Amino acid sequence: MVVDEPATETHLASVLERPRAEVAAALRELAAEYEMQGRGFDLRLVAGGWRFYTRADCAPAVDRYVLDGRQARLTQAALETLAVVAYRQPVSRSRVSAVRGVNCDGVMRTLVQRGLVEETGSEPETGAILYRTTNYFLERTGLRGLDELPELAPFLPEVDDVEAESLEGTTIAEAVAAAHADGGGDEANRSVSDR
After folding, report:
1. Average pLDDT over residues 32-54
2. For the chain, what is the HEC assignment?
3. d(CA 107, CA 81)
4. CB 108, CB 159: distance < 8 Å
5. Helices 76-88 and 93-100 sit at what angle, rounded to 10 degrees?
6. pLDDT 10s digits, 54-92
7. Are 180 and 190 in contact (CB under 8 A)?
8. Are strands 91-92 and 117-122 parallel, antiparallel or unpaired?
9. What Å distances lie between residue 123 and 29, 81, 96, 103, 120, CA to CA?
10. What is the Cα gyration radius of the chain?
11. 3-state secondary structure 156-182
């Protein structure tokens, strides 16, 4: 209860002077017992270690007590940026900006300050700083490792939708090119862009 990050089975075994397998079995047994009894807390394996968490249905009461109404949530931009880093890490800020389509420098600073993202070296070709998620990110999201991130496929657009948008863009580009070829120049450009 006093640790500020998940405690590994190896560390707990060392402190307790017991075999690691025995400690691991005891932790899993305790976690199952707390779950079965419906206690106000859970013992969970996250980010490579064990930690106590408030049970989800008790969280609102604990939040009111601890936070007294103050809660710092991530913005939509921060969540999107964090998702790009999580799925593409290690990744540079410029690559994250390219994926999102907007500059993400300020958002990245916020994520670093909150301990969710950290620097992890630099790109050999460009020298750009690379970023990755932290163990704190895993802990806050309740993941044991990055392999537990959900698959992206269900959230991606269908191939037909992407092709339709691509064809629409191509049609507009062809119309602009044809207008220029016909000598319509700027007037044709305005009429196409006004549509």
Report:
1. 90
2. CCCCCCECHHHHHHHHCCCHHHHHHHHHHHHHHHHHHCCCEEEEEECCEEEEEECHHHHHHHHHHHHCCCCCCCCHHHHHHHHHHHHHCCEEHHHHHHHHCCCCHHHHHHHHHCCCEEEEEECCCCCCEEEEECHHHHHHHCCCCHHHCCCCHHHCCCHHHHHHHHHHHHHHHHHHHHHHHCCCHHHHHHHHHCC
3. 7
4. no
5. 120
6. 888 888 887 777 666 555 678 888 999 999 999 999 999
7. no
8. unpaired
9. 44, 19, 14, 19, 10
10. 25
11. CCCHHHHHHHHHHHHHHHHHHHHHHHC
* Residue that has been written with the tokens 């969280």 in this structure: 59
Residues 50, 43: Cα–Cα separation, whole Å:
7
Higher-pLDDT residue of 175, 119:
119
Structural tokens at position 43: 């013992």
| CB-based contacts of 87, cutoff 8 Å, min separation 6 | 149, 152
Structure tokens at 67: 């936070």
